[in-house]
Every structure is written in C-alpha cells, then in structure tokens.
Description:
Elements: H1 24-30, H2 35-44, H3 50-59, E1 72-81, H4 83-99, E2 111-112, E3 117-119, H5 126-139, E4 149-152, E5 158-163, H6 167-184, E6 197-202, H7 209-217, E7 226-234, E8 242-246, E9 265-268, H8 272-275, E10 280-285, E11 291-295, E12 299-301, E13 309-315, H9 328-337, E14 339-340, H10 357-364, E15 368-369, E16 379-384, H11 389-393, H12 397-401, H13 436-451, E17 458-461, H14 465-478, E18 485-486, H15 507-512, H16 536-553, E19 561-565, H17 569-572, H18 585-593, E20 600-606, E21 611-615
Parallel strand pairs: 16-19, 17-18, 17-19
Antiparallel strand pairs: 1-2, 1-3, 1-7, 4-5, 5-6, 7-13, 8-9, 8-12, 9-10, 10-11, 14-15, 16-20, 20-21
Helix pairs in contact: 1-2, 2-3, 4-7, 5-6, 13-14
Amino acid sequence: xxxxxxxxxxxxxxxxxxxxxxxxxxxxxxxxxxxxxxxxxxxxxxxxxxxxxxxxxxxxxxxxxxxxxxxxxxxxxxxxxxxxxxxxxxxxxxxxxxxxxxxxxxxxxxxxxxxxxxxxxxxxxxxxxxxxxxxxxxxxxxxxxxxxxxxxxxxxxxxxxxxxxxxxxxxxxxxxxxxxxxxxxxxxxxxxxxxxxxxxxxxxxxxxxxxxxxxxxxxxxxxxxxxxxxxxxxxxxxxxxxxxxxxxxxxxxxxxxxxxxxxxxxxxxxxxxxxxxxxxxxxxxxxxxxxxxxxxxxxxxxxxxxxxxxxxxxxxxxxxxxxxxxxxxxxxxxxxxxxxxxxxxxxxxxxxxxxxxxxxxxxxxxxxxxxxxxxxxxxxxxxxxxxxxxxxxxxxxxxxxxxxxxxxxxxxxxxxxxxxxxxxxxxxxxxxxxxxxxxxxxxxxxxxxxxxxxxxxxxxxxxxxxxxxxxxxxxxxxxxxxxxxxxxxxxxxxxxxxxxxxxxxxxxxxxxxxxxxxxxxxxxxxxxxxxxxxxxxxxxxxxxxxxxxxxxxxxxxxxxxxxxxxxxxxxxxxxxxxxxxxxxxxxxxxxxxxxxxxxxxxxxxxxxxxxxxxxxxxxxxxxxxxxxxxxxxxxxxx
Length: 638
C-alpha cells in the first residue's frame, strides 16, 4: 500500500450519536447544563447554534432570573435591506440629531406583520417549520413588482409609509397562513389586520413636524427594493424599558454598582430619570442579567431592537419592472377583484402622484381595498373615561382653579399642568378635564391593550372633554395614529345633568388644542336632538342604536372597535347586543357604581348565532387606592 493512500476502514462508528448530529439543546445538555437552562439559552439567542448559546449561559451565571421560565416575546417584521435600509437609517440619524428622540427611534425600520406573542422555551424549534412554510408560500406569489409605498402626510403626529395594493393583500393572506401554522403547534399569534405601514416618525414635538416631513420626502426609494421577513424575540421585561448602549467602560467602585463593558446594553425603567438625584441610574445588563447602579452619561439611549434576538429570516420575492409579466390592464382587473365599492378612508385621502402607468392607475382608483376578514371574530371594547377633576376635588375645584378673569391656577399637583384653551372657560364647570392621575390611568390602559396584542381599527368617543382626553392618552400610549370620531350619541344619561346641559368643545377647538379627531366624521345624531326628558330606557336604546350602527358600518371591512365613553356606557352599549332587556333605573344606578375609572368591557362577535357575547377582557383591571389631602398645618398643633 502506498504511503499516501487512504487505508480501508474496517471499524464502524460505535457511538449512537456523534457531536455533529446533536442539536444545540442536546449538545448543551451533554456539556452538563440543566435542560431548563439549555432550552432558555437556545431560545433567547435565536436558536443560532451551540457557541452563542453556551456563551450566553456562561455570561449569565450570576443572573438572578436565569431559571425564570417566562418565555420570550416574539414578533414578525417585514424589514428593508440593502440600499433602501441605508437611506432609512440615514433618516433615523438625521432626525435624531436635528429633532431629538421620537418613538420611531425605539425600533429599526420595519413593517409590523403581527402582534407580540409568546413561545415556550421548549418550543422555539417550531419557528423553523413556520419559516419553511413562508418560503413555500412566497414561491407561489405572482410577479407583483417592487413593493409599493405611499408617504402619508395627513397627520401632525405621525409620518410614515403605507403599503400599496395589491401587495398588502398578499401579505395579509400570508400572515393568516402563518397564524394557522402556529395554531397547529398550539401557539397563538395574531396577524396585523390593519393597514400595513412603516413608521418614520411618531410622538414628536409639534414644532419638529415640518422638518421631519421635509426629510421624509427626501428619502430616496430605489426603483428595486429588497425585503426580508424576520422573526425576532425579546425579553418580556423590555416592552416598557428604556435601552441604553454603553459608550464608555466602567469598573464598579462599590458593591451595588454595575460593570459597563463595550458592546453591552443596559435596560432600565424610564422613570429612573426622575428618581435619580445624581445622574446614576439603576439598570440591568443585557450581557449578564445582573442589575446595579451605573453612571448614565457613560451610556446613550438606543433602539430597543439592539437587544433583540433574530431567529430566522426569509427574503421576499422581488421582480424588477422589466421582469413583471402582468400588464396594466391585467393589474386593473386583479385590483378590482380585491376591492369593494366605497371611498378611501382618511388614511388614503391624499392623492398619489407617479410617472409610471401603474402608479397613475393606482392614483385614479377610488375604490376601497377590501380588508381580509380576520381569522378570529371582531371585538368591541368599551372603556370608561379616566379620573375627572370635579370628582377628585369636588365641585369647588373650578373656583380654586380659575379667577374672575379666567386665569388658571394649579392649586393641587393632581390638577392638569396646563389647561386646554376653550372659547368660554366657564364651560369647564360642566365639562371638566382629567386629572394628572387620570392621564396616567388612560396611558396604562392603552399600554395594556398594546401589550395584549389587541388591534384597534376604529375609535369612537363621547364629546365630553374627559372622554376626548382619555381617548387621546390611551391611543397615544397604544401607539396608534388613528383619529377618533366624536359622537354625541355616546354622551351619558341626561338625567344626571338636569336642568343644565354641558357645552362641549367644537371640532375647531379640539383640533386647535391638538386632539387627534376626525373632522370629516358626521355624527349619527346631534347633541341638541337628545330630549332632556329621556328615561334610562331611552338612554339604553340611544346607546344600543349607535353601537348597532357602527358594528354594521364596519362589518364588511372587519376590525375591532373601541368606544371611550362613560360608566353607564359599558352596559348600555352591550346589554341589548346580548339579547337582554334594558335595566330599570335602580339596576342601572347599581351597575354604574361598580364601574371605576378606565374600566374595560369586551364583547366578542358570535357570527354563527348573529349576536355578541361579553367575555373576560384581555387586559387586567386597573385598581388603586385614594390619596387624601394632606393638611400640613396639623403638624403645628401642640
């Protein structure tokens, strides 16, 4: 046998499984890590291999939550890549430098395809099956051309792109298929059923709007854009946290301090800015899971996604214009099949100007894209307004807050920091604003709806100022650019107000004050048409008639509806939907007494039986204790 020849093999492999054949989980267990820790390491690192998972375990050896079984929160995004991403990131940097931080900077450029959902650590491998199904579905897509985007310019607190037809219909269909794949594995995932969009700027100072819009209009969209569907996960503690990237290393000098190292991030509660008297914040290291105090100026606020794990990605099929085989006439027929008669919502009120035949055709279409019917029944949320000034401070609040000229004084920290401007300040007597605590109640409620993954497609609101402010704070915290429809029919029972009725702020006043109202909305009834002599039964019928009206109005398009109104509204808007009779006055008063601020009821559509059923709300109730007035001069008594 030649010296360089390979000798024949006579012995077969005796071990049942080689190192290469083991999965990352099996390998970690073979290395001696407990199964629960190994599963968690694989999950939080994106199931990207043994090395990154074992490194995570070793760096988190002192993490007090290492054995916490709480699963990761997952999300699916459609993300730009290549030249378009570079252009978008330049916009991110320029807006941050010129206008300061806004809510869009929390994330990197993306289009949200679903709500956050959870997968147990032991089940993350199901993502591979789902992504494989996505890849198969994408192969069946027709040649649609490059994904079309429309810059939305009709809001003063939101700037972004919306996906043009027919792409958004295909994406929505795809996500329903993805939802079904997850359900096969016993995992609940809710697709994004409202208009697909990419946020460029949101929740910014009003004075920055024009500059932000100008920079958005200058973003260059390549003729051929590239996109990837990406599956991310994050630590559930991050959903409300502020994330800060380390820009300068720090070695702890005391036992309760946190070590700062390069390429690490620290997450903390946003309230740390107010708690800290010296610029030291309490936070948790993303790299180690260890908590402690750190010098804030050694870090810088950054995107939350810097700490997320990327699990899998799959490229969207892309066809340059020269490769698109569908001509304009065929595209028009296809579009009409996906559309229903009607005017575009306000979202699409702006005209679209383009040079190509396809864009001109899109601009001329005056039909409404048909929303795909959700895979689950519609939901109706009814929310009571938050804490009101007159109930918090009694009827004397007005005399304490205003002098005879109408000048506002903040006599208590729970009073509004500033008072909205209205034509006659005396109208506040019967139409009061929220307290500071009330605004926080509304924000917490909006955050809870967002975290629960509940989509809101339409919002209707009582004309009371306390309801308008509640809806504004709630939807701002929820993160929605929707405008509310102010409906007089939703005002509470007039029997509470005899003999004098409140005077509400007009659309012009509300808009001048920055409230996100839909000025094009035509109310079902006028406030003057409600008889002062209405009974409790009349009030129930008024509320029920309006609820029926909006449910029917939006039935074809689908989507969940939010009503922000009064304590009696939770029962009055939903009782007859369930096929039940209206309550008598005594029963009504008892129901109202049991409805605290920002309480929520949820009705779910029973399509088969043509009715709606009240179910347990998807968010927890919000309770807290009263805080009495402090009379400091009692400390002077002997």
